[in-house]
């Protein structure tokens, strides 16, 4: 299925002139352990990244993350006012939504909008919607019928604080609020084309449903077993990682690019960056949690590939993700490159 006609924001004119587009909303997934480059291409990538290193070094990553997360938190606070009724349900929604966190997904959404020429105001409504969806997924994950976790972000999980029935309903309410918040044109500056919002809504639906997050959760549940003789192969593990967590990261970047009016080529590069970025952080997480995961017989990349090959895979994903940033403005690409460096840095500590 192809996207609706593409739109590119003209910053000098303050509008999006219509332009034809044939970009498909989905790309074939990478095969595991198949990310590689011919030597000439790898040399070009290294040179391009080196030329951007000065701009990246001047970029204050910590200040950027703090400023963007503060903006997102203010918008989320306004999106779910405390005085609404039923009061206890909205209290539970705010309890989980405003409990903290890095706000990685909304920040990626805003950064992707800005890298293709948009501004933060275009991306803030979908950024908030993405964080609502992410929070909903965590509330569901914590339930006794799922992971049965008592704590989330250093405080009792929602079902422990408000009871299981209300936690389920509050999570459902956040999910539906996310769509309303994304689709409400009153949340956007004047002149934002409804066609962009429609495309963003379709992308969010794909990321959440049977093609995305829900599919990953189901596969994860089916793969959780105490039977030491029942194995999960690398294809299944990659599917789980890409869909349970990676797909919402992909959606965040793609939706931001949509709202900024990204071109076909820009959208393709953003999507591929996000796919490698999302899987990279899952593999890093597997490596960091290797002791705990082995004790629980959880299938991970280190378990299937070994620690050394898993670290090599991280480097391959890192190289691939960086390659998709090479044609963007270095300063606007800096958040994306610094996030990759952060993922790699975690392995050195």
TrEMBL record:
Its cofactor is Mg(2+). The lineage of its organism: Eukaryota, Viridiplantae, Streptophyta, Embryophyta, Tracheophyta. Keywords: Magnesium, Metal-binding, Transferase. PANTHER family: FARNESYL DIPHOSPHATE SYNTHASE, OS07G0580900 PROTEIN. Belongs to the FPP/GGPP synthase family. This is Geranylgeranyl diphosphate synthase. The keyword Phosphoprotein does not apply. InterPro entries: Isoprenoid_synthase_dom_sf (IPR008949), Polyprenyl_synt (IPR000092), Polyprenyl_synt_CS (IPR033749).
């Amino acid at each position: 299925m192809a996207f609706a006609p593409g739109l590119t924001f003209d910053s000098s004119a303050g509008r999006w002139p219509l332009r034809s587009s044939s970009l498909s909303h989905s790309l074939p997934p990478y095969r595991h352990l198949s990310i590689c480059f011919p030597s000439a291409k790898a040399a070009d990538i290294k040179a391009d990244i080196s030329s951007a290193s000065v701009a990246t070094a001047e970029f204050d990553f910590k200040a950027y993350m703090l400023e963007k997360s503060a903006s997102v938190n203010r918008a989320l606070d306004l999106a779910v006012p405390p005085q609404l009724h039923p009061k206890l349900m909205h209290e539970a929604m705010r309890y989980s939504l405003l409990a903290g966190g890095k706000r990685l997904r909304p920040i990626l959404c805003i950064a992707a909008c800005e890298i293709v020429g948009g501004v933060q105001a275009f991306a803030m409504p979908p950024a908030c919607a993405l964080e609502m969806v992410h929070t909903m997924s965590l509330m569901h994950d914590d339930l006794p019928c799922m992971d049965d976790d008592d704590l989330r972000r250093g405080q009792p999980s929602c079902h422990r604080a408000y009871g299981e029935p209300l936690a389920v309903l509050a999570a459902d309410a956040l999910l539906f609020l996310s769509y309303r918040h994304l689709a409400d044109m009153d949340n956007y500056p004047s002149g934002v084309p409804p066609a962009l919002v429609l495309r963003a809504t379709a992308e969010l639906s794909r990321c959440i449903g049977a093609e995305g997050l829900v599919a990953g959760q189901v596969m994860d549940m089916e793969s959780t077993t105490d039977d030491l003789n029942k194995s999960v192969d690398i294809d299944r593990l990659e599917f789980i990682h890409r869909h349970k967590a990676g797909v919402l990261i992909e959606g965040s970047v793609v939706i931001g690019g949509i709202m900024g009016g990204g071109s076909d080529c820009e959208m393709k590069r953003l999507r591929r960056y996000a796919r490698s970025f999302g899987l990279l952080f899952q593999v890093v997480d597997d490596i960091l949690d290797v002791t705990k995961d082995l004790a629980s017989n959880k299938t991970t990349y280190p378990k299937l590939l070994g620690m050394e090959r898993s670290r090599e895979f991280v480097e391959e994903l890192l190289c691939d993700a960086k390659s998709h940033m090479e044609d963007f403005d270095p300063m606007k690409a800096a958040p994306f490159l610094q996030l990759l460096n952060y993922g790699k840095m975690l392995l050195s500590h």
